[in-house]
Fold these 2 entries.
Entry 1:
Amino acid sequence: MPKAPNTPAELASWLASAPPLPPEFYNRDPQWVARELLGKLLVRRTQSELLAGRIVETEAYLGQDDPAAHAAAGRTPRNFVLWGPPGRAYVYFIYGNHYCLNVSCLPQGVAGCVLFRALEPVAGRTEMARARHLDPAQMHGRAARLLTSGPGRLSEAMGITRPRDNDKDLTEAASDLLVLDDGHRPRRISVTSRIGITKAAGHPLRYLIEGNEFVSGKKNISG
DNA sequence: TACATGATGCCCT
DNA sequence: GGGCATCATGTAG
């Protein structure tokens, strides 16, 4: 594992060159991947931008036997990525407004994924604010939650769209969308039922860093 | 070709 | 706490 950066300058330098999590990380049960993704960094790095957010909330979707999963309907042109190799971005458009980012899990031929639900902004806050059509000057304290607290919000902040990013390999070093491990480990993790679904709604498959203010949901605004 | 639906977010009360 | 915008997708006809 690479050495954990300490100062913001070190972090930026490290973000620009660190290796992504390998395919093996994703080649297992989505429940395990969802839990272990907490505390990792989702990074968009191109020549013109460096955006990074710490993953603080995820949900596991188990595959064809999970009624709430897109994979339950079987393989279609929309969801084929779920059956692809582990570590690929599955991006879909929802409610006529929003993109959501998932990463494929398990070996090729077996469906399963993890939904990214919330990030804590780490680098590129100003660019994220512009992408979200918010005033960068206001993005401090609680208002910063508006940047990346929610699957639609984080996708907009990171510039994630289906035409641009669907089926992108998040484990390839040359990719502009990656997940990195900077050595951070969450103190305490909570598990709850998944948000916004009607089928199989009772299963404890949502994972979050306890006490983190960037976890989605109005409950978390207080304090 | 038509229609129902949704792994959301925003604005209003 | 509730209403609703807005459209890609899948399915039915």
Note: Residues 73, 76-78, 92-97, 162 of chain A lie near DNA strand C (CB under 10 Å from a C1').
Entry 2:
Amino acid sequence: MPELPEVETMVRGIRPHLEQRKIRELRQCRCRCKPISLTPGFRTLATRMRGLTITSVRRLAKRVVLDLSDESILAIEPRMTGLMLLADPPDPEHLRLEWKLEEAGEYDSVWFWDRRGLGTVRLYTADEFKAELGTGRLGPDALAAALTDWERLCQSHRAIKVALLDQQRIAGIGNLYASEILHLAQIHPERPASNLLPREIRALAAATQAVLTEAIRYEGSTLSDGTYRNALNRDGGYQNAHRVYARAGECCPTCQTDIVQRIVQAQRSTFFCPNCQPLTARRKR
DNA sequence: ATTAATGTTCAGAA
DNA sequence: TTTCTGAACATTAA
């Protein structure tokens, strides 16, 4: 589930409790589900991480990244249902990994919890990290993208909603926030990206900033399935501010005129308001 | 029983 | 080369 705002919330939640602390040991939680993807395998991972100090905790697109004292880097990718927790997991069955910490602190461990188990955890050397996640695989972060990055995104002929999900062009936006961003920018999701006018590209960049920073302020979105929680198992609050996502059939909160529609693009749901987001660019100004 | 779910990746086809 | 489709990963809830 987590997109940029949810991963940013996880990072902010765990950072003050992990930085400068030493890893006593890594433990695999015994659940009867299939194990998640670990690279390298658990044994090697545990051996390599034991005794290292966590020097910094940061977000890279939709990954939680721990920089370690021997220059190796751990990247945790929550995918659909992964969470980083300091305490109080939603259930004990889907705890996957536990990092036990050395010094006494407010919390003694941090866990990776993942119900569906699609998440991945990978330990990189500095060189491997640069090669895999440096340039190419991930575009500029959605909160740091410059206008030229947005212009590059809009060279694609794909529908703008689909292009927004391309992590190689702009990294961090997922299915939920793509609909919210396009609604605020008043752009129809099926418009070819390459047909956007310069002022619409600027509106898209501004709407992305506005939606993502507001969502971070609300600590992310907890949907009806309730999977996403912050590091202390508390709900996010942005779902109450959603304008269109999962609101098909409801009245558009902006125009109070039209009904929010659901369509499918690239096999994924898109929500939009036909009145606020016309298929042809409004001509004015 | 069927369907859909906030993510990513791959193969194969247009 | 770009873009699209479907499937896969694994689990749960409506």
Note: The longest helix of chain A spans residues 198-217.
